[in-house]
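quick q for whoever's on today - can somebody do inverse folding on this one?? i tried earlier but teh output was garbage lol. tokens:
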């Protein structure tokens, strides 16, 4: 649990902090862009018109970061599982007892998951569902990693 807290602190402290002037200028530019988008918005059954900006816009920073965190938390899951196995623990999932399957399936899962959320965001016009799916999978992997660390600490090295 301390490891997760330390990682979270590093991410928080490493984030750049804009000055108040930069923030207010950015905010005013953002508001002007939003008002311009709203003035051009019209109701339509076309998925590209679901929001004023449309689903084909560039994804936000959080969405992109969560995509990379999916890979990171999955890799952390594989690493912590390998530590447990090296210390004499056992894999509970019989399909994942083979090391190549364990690593390969995680890689395939991450790519497929990120591609499917991107498809959901761009082609289907559901950016919020795609974002919440990424948040959920990162949270789930984070829990699994924390649990693996807890189990690994209880085993003899």
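ok took a stab at it. sequence:
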């Amino acid at each position: 649990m301390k490891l997760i807290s330390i990682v979270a602190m590093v991410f928080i402290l490493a984030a750049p902090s804009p000055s108040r002037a930069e923030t207010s200028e950015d905010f005013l530019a953002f508001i002007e862009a939003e008002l311009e988008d709203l003035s051009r918005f019209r109701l339509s059954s076309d998925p590209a018109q679901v929001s004023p900006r449309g689903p084909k816009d560039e994804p936000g920073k959080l969405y992109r970061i969560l995509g990379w965190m999916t890979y990171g938390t999955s890799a952390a899951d594989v690493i912590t599982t390998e530590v447990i196995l090296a210390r004499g623990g056992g894999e509970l999932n019989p399909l994942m007892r083979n090391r190549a399957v364990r690593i390969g399936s995680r890689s395939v899962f991450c790519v497929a998951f990120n591609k499917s959320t991107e498809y959901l965001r761009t082609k289907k016009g559901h950016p919020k569902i795609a974002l919440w799916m990424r948040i959920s999978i990162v949270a789930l992997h984070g829990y699994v990693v924390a649990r693996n660390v807890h189990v690994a600490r209880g085993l003899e090295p």
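fwiw DSSP finds five helices and no strands in the chain. also Residues 56 and 122 are 5 Å apart (CA to CA). so keep that in mind when u check it
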